[in-house]
Amino acid sequence: MKSTPRGGYLGRQLELVIKDDTANPDVGRKLSLELVDEKVVAVIGFCNTGVALKSLDVFQDNKLPLLIPCTTGSPLTAKYPGPESYIFRTSAKDGIQAPFVVDDILKRGWKKVAIFADSTPYGEGGMKDVVAALEARNIKPVYIARFPLGVKDLTEELKAARAEGIDVVFSYTVGPESAVIARGRKELGWKVPQVGAWSLSLPNFINGAKDAAEGALMAQTFIAEPSNERRATFLAAYSRKYKVQQMPVPMAVAQAYDTTYLLAFSFFDIRDGNLTGPAIKQQLENKKRTFYGVVATYQRPFSIQDKDAVSTNMLVMGKIKDGLVTFAYPEDAKRNLFVQRKQ
Predict the structure, then answer these.
(1) How far apart are CA 134 and CA 126, in angstroms?
(2) Which of 143, 196, 271, 276 has the smallest count of CB within 10 Å of its CB?
(3) Does 9 score more than 80 pLDDT?
(4) If pLDDT is split at 50, 70 and 90, which confidence band does 1 have?
(5) φ, ψ of residue 218 in degrees (nearest 5)
(6) What does the buried/exposed string (b/e) look like for 34-43 if buried means 16 or more CB atoms within 10 Å of the residue's CB?
């Protein structure tokens, strides 16, 4: 599917080429190869770690910059050495989300942790990041459950975790499976808290778990509240354009919005019109102008060595309240009056 937006670059119109990988790694790789054949100059994409992992070499081998605005698996920006890598990311990698959430649960006094992780690369990597974060604080998980995507019942695993006297369930999976965990806890009458990475903010968790999702805690880079003028304008513009009251996945929308501008700015700094992969990569790594985004203020989001735009100081804890994601701490809402910069 193709569309032609308004505007352009040095008198040339920009053409947007849209592909849907259907969350399937094989489809994602096939479409990635198609994008190379269609001679696109850069790609924004991927919401699934496993899908992205299968396609990374397509972009790297063809020197085609890939900007990832959604998926968070730690290995994505670690596969290639920084100076050589064409893989950039504007979402918070699990390597910072996991310790951020671990710090929060320990601050709340929860030390007996159960990890429920799916068997995909996302779940596998996230579980390892949580285990590493706990071990860095001299704690080991008391119980670990593994399961495939599509699982419908985790009652026995939840009973086993409960028998260990667990303080908190850390789920590292996507929305539907996190909802299975939440509903299972409710059916058992087990009121242990559920925490996780950003995927606990997905609608298919909130809607799938219903009232069992209430109180769930997760890492976030963006919460859809008009905490400052920049974010208020963004939320209002989205609502008008798409005629909706709420964004379906606010964090992913905001990150994709900022990513698009970061890529466009890299074009504008290439004065000779030669939009090659190496030229775009160089501009992304040596950004000359500050972009005031809705997730962050991007002064130097990337460098030759560092391809992750999000640092820990840009994270806040989100909490499900009345079916919506809000700030877990009032002080975070106040801090969010000021858009953070990477540290």
Answers:
(1) 12
(2) 271
(3) no
(4) very low
(5) -155, 160
(6) ebeeeebbbb
